[in-house]
Amino acid sequence: MHPDIQAYHTTLSATDSDICELLAAEICKHLPKAENKIWHRHPVWFLEGNPIVGYSKLKDCIRLLFWSGQSFAEDGLQPEGSFKAAEARYHDVKEVNTKDLQRWLKKAQTIQWDYKNIVKRKGQLEKLGNF
After folding, report:
1. Phi first, then psi: what are they for 20, rounded to 5°?
2. b/e for 58-85, b at 16 or more Cβ within 10 A?
3. 96 Cβ partners below 8 Å, 6+ apart?
């Protein structure tokens, strides 16, 4: 894990840090080839330059975000924003279901929209691969 992500965790409360430590460990375990770094002030994992998953501190929780998550067809993820992202929110580390997270991370590797080139395409998303 990138040292900047570890530093991000130290800025959080103990409860939020526990959630983020678990999320980071699971993401790194199941996306071992993904680059990770702080991007727009939050931890994000990328595959070939395309943002896949990240998390951030909201007022009362930690939000886990999958950029292509709306295409996963998963009940545990809620639509977020006007593109294809979906999220899960956590208030306590006990709420993180690692089996669900593992399944979502597996889907994140094969179900991707091309966010890397969204500016070049003037806000239009295209599928990467056949899903």
Report:
1. -65, -40
2. eeebbbbbbbbbbbbebeebeebeeebb
3. 19, 22, 23, 26, 90
Q: Hey, where are the domains in the chain?
A: 3-128
Q: Residue 123 above 80 pLDDT?
A: no
Contact by Cβ (8 Å): 67, 127: no
CA gap 75, 55 in Å, rounded: 19
Q: What is the pLDDT of residue 126?
A: 84
Report the chain's C-alpha Rg in angstroms: 14
Over range 15-23, report the average pLDDT: 98
CATH assignment, 3-128: 3.90.1150.200
Q: Does 110 score more than 80 pLDDT?
A: yes
Model confidence pLDDT, tens digit, residues 84-102:
999 999 999 999 999 999 9
User: What's the pLDDT score for residue 114?
Assistant: 83
